[in-house]
Write a structure and sequence with these properties.
The complex is a heterodimer of chains A (about 450) and B (about 525).
Chain A lengths: L2 H17 L4 E17 L2 E19 L3 E8 L3 H17 L27 H21 L4 E17 L4 E16 L6 E8 L6 H17 L4 E2 L3 E7 L1 H7 L2 H4 L3 H5 L20 E4 L20 E6 L2 E2 L6 H7 L7 E7 L2 E6 L4 E3 L6 H5 L5 E4 L2 E8 L4 E6 L3 E5 L2 E6 L2 E5 H6 L1 E4 L4 E5 L2 E7 L2 E9 L4
Parallel strand pairs in A: 7-19, 8-15, 14-23
Antiparallel strand pairs in A: 1-2, 1-4, 2-3, 4-5, 5-6, 8-24, 9-10, 9-14, 10-11, 12-13, 15-18, 16-17, 17-20, 18-19, 20-24, 21-24, 22-23
Helix pairs in contact in A: 1-2, 3-4
Chain B lengths: L9 H9 L4 H10 L2 H21 L3 E17 L2 E19 L2 E7 L4 H16 L16 E5 L11 H14 L5 E17 L4 E19 L2 E8 L2 E2 L4 H4 L2 H18 L11 E5 L1 H13 L4 H4 L29 E3 L22 E5 L2 E2 L6 H6 L8 E2 L8 E2 L3 E4 L6 H5 L4 E5 L2 E6 L5 E6 L2 E5 L2 E6 L4 E5 H7 E4 L4 E10 L4 E9 L2 E6 L6
Parallel strand pairs in B: 4-6, 9-16, 15-24
Antiparallel strand pairs in B: 1-2, 1-5, 2-3, 5-6, 6-7, 6-8, 9-25, 10-11, 10-15, 11-12, 13-14, 16-19, 17-18, 18-21, 19-20, 22-25, 23-24
The chains are: A alpha+beta (about 450), B alpha+beta (about 525).
Chain lengths: ~450, ~525
């Protein structure tokens, strides 16, 4: 029995077991094998391996009660038990105020390419060497110590809905984060590489090591930055965090619970005309790419920001019906707490249009400018107003008269709506980002933002 | 967090059957906790230890963990989701010639276990290290432990949960937006090692998270608040959950209505008094995290970061005033971070992180205990079976001082009492922190006034802040339940944090710029 046959058999069992006891059911069975190598102080700390086979099940009973669960399964007996439990749970639940139906049209799914690495199994053997090569590249650029993690995985799933849609998909993914240090705590640099084909990206992984090492060396002697108002040039890694927050917040559920500032802004101009971004499930090589969503709605490219204007939100069947529009093929099972899974619209890949400027051009100008290469710990005082702060980490440079001077220890304390509106230029160095601080695959270039508020410790 | 007890819950099932309409819940609980499943998990964990030794590993540990989480989610009083999530699996660590491998699997299947362990063993074999990992002298502990509770969360039927949700939702009326997530979660675990440790543990958490948005005369105000309880259903009353939520909602509404910017507070340094919630986040971020041994020696370098403690002499370096005493203690009953043995089988104990302003003791697991020339102090935690145990805080707090509440304010001419906070962050060496107040009051001439201050910002270094502390009140309140994030893949563990009121002299509020 092939993997796909096994997944089909489990899904068929789930739908058969739920047929007489539910109004509708979607079963999706997923096999996942993941590996990770973590390293620090230029040595490998741990090699990890995960094996998972799980069933995602959505059951609708009594027309409006919805239970959603994720359960590990090994056999059709396990599946039947899982269905029994879910039916019981569904009947006990109150009717959901956030359910208005499921996709009921079998769709034709787009062909996907570039999402699977046929050499993934062999890559596990090579992975420790790749980590060694990335570490060496950082050291050769002048780093003294190197830390990071390389994670890679393969996943396949099969889904079928009692309402008609069915399909399967398989994908592979990897992400490498390299952080290089001098002996001091202060002078560090980061390099990232991520994508869907690790065996084809070995050069990119070494380049990530090289970039981390080079930025670390360039940071040596960083001085305390001065608080004030600056133009900021944000690397793709930084822009993927709080600039890409805006298209990521174009989600009706986030609006409903107060985690988005975009509630009543459809049609509003949020950014200059040269800024466009989409939710693109079809992006070639996108880690979040998929031919169809959880309900079986065909995936598509959804324009979110069109020449600066907020054009659309992502939707699933329920939020689309509530908003009087059509699903955008963004339905996903989202965990909102332990045991609390919801069928919600969710981003796939957030993809910005590439810009036209080189990094050097972005750094040009008469105003004091700070180039931020990495950040972390973004926290909001209020998602509705957009007030937030975040901490630049690793290499950061004050740019004056074309000269870069390394600085440290400042904070970006500003407002996401204001910063998005103040974008003055986009680079042409678009790159896919996925790492600790950026959990949605995001494709974005460097971004320049005018008049940003920089703060620092007062004592 | 997490843990195992071997026996199922026969009384629970009987009690459930007495309640109208609860049978379906009992069925699920019974299935999840049935002895055959637990025995299968224990047997496979023991097999994993033997199999790992057979592969050639010098040390093997296996952790069978099962968890049953249920959930109800409400938005503005209306139910939007509910469900149940059983989770069963085994995580194995193998030490291979001083190199560490980890394997996890979610089905209790020998073939799968052997394959996953073999893959992890080979990856570890191929992962050279300059310095071999040394776990130190063998640790052998045997026994059972459990969180104290009277009424198991597994006995609580969905109707009762919905009743609590309704009470909580009543409190949120009038808010712009109110989201409530209830997660009763029961966790059991069996931990066995090649050194002879065999431990059964059991934890029970009622996770309660809320997102509150209030619109008032002065603008919008938002808080994400955690009211998590550890123990049985009795904690709902003992922890005054509904009353606490009602109180916090009232306070958020009041801030949205009344808090205003007071520019005069920016013109000069002012004295700050923070309440137990803010003391808790300071103890966690500015003291607890930098004291983690793995960060100090760089293991978290690419993720959560390193620590400014690296360049200090533990036991000698001063990082705060004499008034600063901060501890971490997993053994406190009915706390979010409670456990009695850690996830390496080491007996838990209190850790005095800072004593009279001087760094005193880092948080350590076995590997870093050896590297610091000290023993593990039982700080290894894994959030679930598929995560490696790493060094974590449990319950972190300012030790009580000797001031009364009146005394701590009495000589302040101009200052701010920051009772709660919203936005915060700290750099990855844990040195530059920012806390933005949510509920804050003007203090004038020794009295806390009714004037609410909008979003005062304490943006300082850790040492700058802790050396400005000169007084702590006598009370201790673990007022800040939270989920602490660390590791890659991420591991969010439940923690508590707190203290009494803490006074910081001559703080320049800001964010300058």
């Amino acid at each position: 029995m092939t993997d796909l046959d096994m997944l089909k058999s489990l899904v068929d069992s789930a739908l058969a077991a739920s047929k007489a006891r539910s109004d509708a059911a979607i079963a999706r069975c997923r096999a996942y094998t993941g590996s990770q190598i973590r390293f620090s102080q230029s040595s490998i700390d741990i090699a990890q391996r995960w094996e998972e086979l799980s069933l995602d099940l959505v059951l609708v009973v009594d027309k409006e009660k919805v239970a959603i669960g994720r359960t590990p399964v090994a056999s059709t007996d396990d599946v039947k038990k899982a269905v029994d439990d879910m039916v019981d749970v569904a009947k006990r639940l109150p009717a959901s105020a956030l359910f208005a139906g499921l996709e009921d049209r079998p769709g034709k799914f787009p062909a996907m390419t570039g999402n699977y690495d046929g050499k993934i199994d062999g890559f596990a053997v090579k992975a420790p060497q790749m980590v060694g090569a990335a570490i060496d590249a950082a050291l050769q650029e002048g780093a003294k110590r190197v830390a990071g993690a390389l994670k890679f995985s393969k996943e396949s799933f099969y889904m079928r809905s009692s309402l008609g849609p069915e399909g399967s998909h398989r994908s592979t993914a990897y992400d490498l984060n390299v952080r290089a240090f001098q002996e001091e705590l202060d002078y560090s640099g980061q390099g990232l590489s991520c994508g869907t084909k690790p065996s084809a990206d070995e050069k990119a992984m070494v380049a990530a090591g090289r970039q981390a090492g080079s930025l670390s060396k360039e940071s040596i002697g960083a001085k305390q930055g001065e608080p004030g108002t600056y133009d900021l040039v944000l690397s793709p890694t930084v822009a993927a965090d709080f600039i890409a927050f805006m298209p990521g917040a174009a989600n009706p559920f986030l609006v409903m619970i107060g985690l988005s500032p975009l509630g009543d802004r459809i049609g509003a101009t949020l950014a200059p005309e040269f800024v466009s971004a989409s939710d693109d499930a079809l992006f070639k090589g996108g880690i979040g790419s998929q031919p169809f969503d959880f309900e079986g709605t065909p995936a598509r490219t959804v324009p979110i920001i069109d020449r600066g204007v907020l054009k659309s939100f992502v939707h699933n069947t329920t939020t689309a019906k509530m908003s009087g529009t059509e699903s955008t093929g963004n339905s996903a099972v989202v965990a909102v707490g332990l045991g609390a899974n919801m069928l919600l619209p969710s981003s796939t890949n957030v993809v910005f249009d590439n810009g036209t400027h080189t990094l050097e051009e972005l750094l040009e100008g008469n105003k004091p400018t700070i180039y931020v290469t990495c950040n972390w710990y973004t926290r909001f005082q209020n998602y509705v107003t957009g007030d937030f702060s975040t901490i630049p980490r690793d290499a950061m440079f004050l740019v004056k008269n074309g000269k870069r001077t390394p600085i440290k220890n400042v904070r970006i304390s500003d407002n996401t709506l204001r910063m998005f509106a103040n974008i003055t230029a986009m680079g042409k160095d678009r790159k896919q980002i996925l790492w600790w601080e950026v959990q949605t695959p995001t494709v974005i270039p460097s971004v320049k933002v005018a008049d940003c508020r920089i703060t620092a410790a007062t004592q | 967090m997490s843990f195992t007890r071997r026996s199922p819950f026969p009384l629970a099932t009987m009690e459930l059957d007495k309640r109208a309409g609860t049978h379906v819940d009992a069925t699920l609980s019974q299935r999840f906790t049935e002895t055959s499943l637990m025995d299968k998990g224990r047997d496979l964990a023991e097999h994993c230890v033997e199999f790992g030794r057979g592969l050639g590993a010098q040390y093997v540990e296996a952790r069978y963990q099962s968890q049953l989480a249920r959930a109800l989610v409400y938005r503005n009083g209306a139910p939007v989701a509910g469900g149940v999530q059983p989770s069963v699996g085994i995580g194995v660590r193998l030490l291979v010639d001083g190199r560490m491998g980890f394997a996890s699997f979610d089905r209790l299947d020998r073939g799968l276990a052997d394959d996953a362990m073999t893959a992890a063993f080979r990856m570890a074999q191929n992962s050279p290290r300059k310095k071999p990992i040394d776990l130190g002298p063998p640790v052998v502990n045997k026994g059972k432990w459990t969180v104290k509770m009277r009424e198991s969360l597994l006995d609580v039927d969905t109707d009762t949960l919905m009743g609590l949700a309704q009470e909580i939702n009543e409190q949120g009326k009038g808010l712009q937006s109110f989201t409530v997530i209830l997660n009763p979660t029961d966790t059991t675990k069996y931990f066995v090692t090649s050194e002879g440790t065999q431990l059964d543990g059991h934890l029970s958490h009622l996770f309660i998270n809320t997102l509150i948005t209030a619109e008032g005369a002065k603008g919008s105000e938002q808080r994400y608040l955690d009211f998590t309880q550890s123990g049985g259903w009795e904690r709902v009353k003992e922890g005054r959950v509904v009353e606490q939520i009602a109180d916090e909602i009232r306070r958020v509404k009041e801030v949205a209505d009344k808090a205003e910017k007071l520019p005069e507070l920016l013109n000069q340094p002012v004295d700050m008094v923070v309440g137990p919630e803010v003391a808790g986040i300071i103890s966690h971020e500015n003291v607890g995290h930098p004291s983690e041994g793995d960060r100090i020696l760089g293991r978290e370098g690419a993720q959560a970061g390193e620590s400014f403690w690296r360049d200090l002499q533990i036991g000698k370096s001063r990082v705060g005033s004499d008034a600063v005493n901060v501890s971490d203690d997993p053994t406190l009953p009915n706390t979010g971070g409670f456990y009695l043995y850690d996830d390496e089988g080491v007996k838990a104990r209190k850790r005095r992180l800072i004593k009279n302003g001087v760094t005193n003791e880092p948080l350590l697991n076995r590997e870093f205990g050896v590297r610091f020339g000290m023993a593990s102090n039982g700080a290894a935690r894994a959030v679930t079976y598929n995560r490696e145990p790493i060094i974590r805080m449990a319950n972190t707090f300012f030790e009580p001082g000797d001031y009364s509440l009146e005394e701590i304010f009495e000589d302040i001419k101009l200052g701010v009492y920051m009772r709660s906070f919203g936005e915060w962050n700290i750099d990855d060496r844990r040195y530059q922190s920012k806390y933005t107040g949510t509920e804050a009051y003007l203090v004038k001439d020794g009295k806390v006034t009714e004037t609410m201050v909008r979003h005062p910002v304490m943006e300082t270094t850790s040492v700058g802040l802790l050396t400005a502390a000169d007084a702590v009140t006598k009370n201790l309140s673990l007022a800040f339940p939270a989920t602490c994030g660390k590791g890659d893949p991420a591991q969010g563990v439940p923690v508590y944090a707190g203290g009494g009121e803490v006074r910081f002299r001559a703080i320049r509020l800001g964010g300058v710029g």
